[in-house]
Amino acid sequence: MNAMPEKTIWADDGRVSIIDQTRLPGDFHKMEVKTVGEMWEAIKSLRVRGAPAIGIAAAFGVWIAVKHLRAEDSLPLDQAIENACSYLATARPTAVNLFWALDRVRKLAKANTDLPHNKLQRLVLAEAEAMLAEDYEICTAIGRHGAGLLEDGHRILTHCNAGGLATAGYGTALAPVYYAVEKLGKHLEVFADETRPLLQGARLTSWELVRASIPVTLICDNMAAVVLRNGWVNAVIVGTDRVARNGDFANKIGTYGLAVLAREHNVPLYVAAPLSSIDISLSSGAEIPIEERNADEITSLHGLKIAPEGVKVFNPAFDVTPHRLVTAFITEKGIVRPSYEKNLTALFD
Ligand code: MRU
């Protein structure tokens, strides 16, 4: 079997394309992203989403912004790159991968200001393509390390989508599952939280797993407690948008509740985190900016009003889980256990 999911973003013949994830699972639609404004919109509206994927998408967005600039244009190329980076950084605040990727492009541009336009433009494209290739390898490494935590017959509960659609490869949280099934021949089953309000678990995670022929049971978020109490789950594995150096981490809203439930039922909570999601500059999760999104994501479902006009709404896209609830992080460099402050920091030595 081939568990490797579809490419979520790619560049071909000078064109950048993505799968429009807002149309899944009903419509598998590939769209070309032609302007930096379209890339900003694609990230903001979650056409491309998931922490690693939005970083890579933003890097391609910078290239789209400057690829037609000529030496005779009034805006210097390094200034145009900086403008594109600043603009794309406003698309979403929580996933640190976005800023990590844009900083990589910025540094590249600063180190090569003397190059002719076409050479620097090619370097920006090559950097975005390198991020794609690296992320593929990182996902595989997370899969290899994480698969060692899973035994034949295990059942895994996950939240949101941290699969291939959210990355350039196997995903993060789903990588250990894909790796264990595909490379090690283990039989695993997954419970997928539907993940209100935007249903990434129902629309994306269960779509990916069904495509990969991995048994998946979809549950509403409020069913996780019963599934855990019934003893049906051996491990909870989630992805992350940002990890502070003390191990507190932000992930899709609902993750914190799931972490509390996992602890109550003595089920390990593993957080799959590439180093690009670890923000060593933050001392704790209290410093992670949490995106709040439009009220209509909660008051409407596929255009149908499900709440009265004028009702007050709270719609944080992410929550922060304290490090004491995390059993271990699964990174591309291996499994990281407490003490997190020391062991996460050591990953960057
Ligand atoms: O709002 P989204 O869909 O971008 O949120 C995504 C998540 O919270 C994922 O779990 C996280 O980015 C990890 S993706 C590998």
In short:
Helix content is 38%, strand content 17%. With 349 residues, it is of the alpha/beta class.
Structure, described:
The protein folds into 2 domains: 9-139, translation initiation factor eif-2b, domain 1 (Four Helix Bundle (Hemerythrin (Met), subunit A), Up-down Bundle); 145-346, Rossmann fold (3-Layer(aba) Sandwich), CATH 3.40.50. The chain has 11 helices and 16 strands. The protein has helices spanning 36-44, 51-66, 77-88, 96-111, 117-147, 175-182, 200-211, 224-229, 255-264, 296-299, 340-346, and strands at 9-12, 15-19, 30-33, 155-158, 189-193, 216-219, 235-238, 242-244, 249-252, 269-272, 278-279, 300-301, 304-305, 318-321, 328-331, 334-336. The strands form 4 sheets. A 7-stranded mixed beta sheet has the order 6-5-4-7-10-15-16, sandwiched between helices. The protein has a 4-stranded mixed beta sheet with strand order 11-8-9-14, with helices on one face. Helix 6 (175-182) links the parallel strand 4 and strand 5 (189-193). 5-S-methyl-1-O-phosphono-5-thio-D-ribulose is lined by residues 46, 49-52, 95, 160, 162, 166-167, 171-172, 200, 239-241, 251-252, 317.
- β-strand amount: 15-25%
Main sheet: strands, sense, barrel:
7 strands, mixed
Total tally of structural domains: 2
**Bound small-molecule species:** 5-S-methyl-1-O-phosphono-5-thio-D-ribulose
Question: What structural category do the secondary elements indicate?
Answer: alpha/beta
CATH architecture of the largest domain: 3-Layer(aba) Sandwich
Name the poorly predicted regions.
none
Distance between the termini: 38 Å
Q: What would the CATH topology of the largest domain be?
A: Rossmann fold
